[in-house]
Amino acid sequence: MDLRLTGKRALVTGAGRGIGKAVALRLAEEGAQVALLARSRDQLEATAAQLPGPSLVVPADTTDDAAVRTAVDVVVGAWGGVDVLVNAAARPASSAPVPALADLGDDALRAEVETKVLGYLRCARAVAPHMTAQGWGRIVNVSGLNARATGNLVGTVRNVAVAAMTANLAEELGPHGVNVTTVHPGATVTERTSADVAAAPAGNRIGRLVTAGEVADVVVFLCSPRSVAVTGDAVAAGGGTRGVAVY
């Protein structure tokens, strides 16, 4: 299937590693021009060296609104616009023990909201005028399956907030040709995952962990013109949650 992404101008945040990097690679393989955003220039340049097509390296911290706007201005100045935004600049869910309520400080949640929720909002706010002016765009927010589970208060709250933001943006931007969706990965194999963990059986429906590249396949479809029927909703990409029916 031709995803019709050849020549599309994409901005991927969190592109230095993990799911963000995998998405950047898949988009480039589909013919998109990819601008790479993260805090580490070295990581971005390493990603750029692996892309088969045109790319831009735009280091920025998504907790800084001025830095985000400057980065988007650089992309627009170089390429004339932005067609696709993938928000993936967030820390992965921690494997550390979850603190009890009495030990959970405000900053634990504040830091996650600042990076994942407000960071995603800043990027969407900066690119949306360019997308609506041209009458077409795609925004995909990488969130997480903690949105559908208890046991990690901070993880649940941040990911539910991303899904709620996505639905609201989709409603506002949809009449202008811009689709906005959420992708909820579960535990995912990335370059930081040990070989033992990657090879271990998983408690999902496919019996193994999903890889970053497999999550990226879902994200990249949602970035394409062929995904027009999907907007405002959250798509799970974690190998299927056992014992749950989502409707």
TrEMBL record:
GO terms, biological process: fatty acid elongation
Family: Belongs to the short-chain dehydrogenases/reductases (SDR) family.
Record-linked Pfam families: adh_short (PF00106)
The name this protein goes by in its record: NADP-dependent 3-hydroxy acid dehydrogenase YdfG
Signal peptide (from-to): none
GO molecular function: oxidoreductase activity, acting on the CH-OH group of donors, NAD or NADP as acceptor
Residues spanning the membrane: none
InterPro entries from the UniProt entry: NAD(P)-bd_dom_sf, SDR_fam
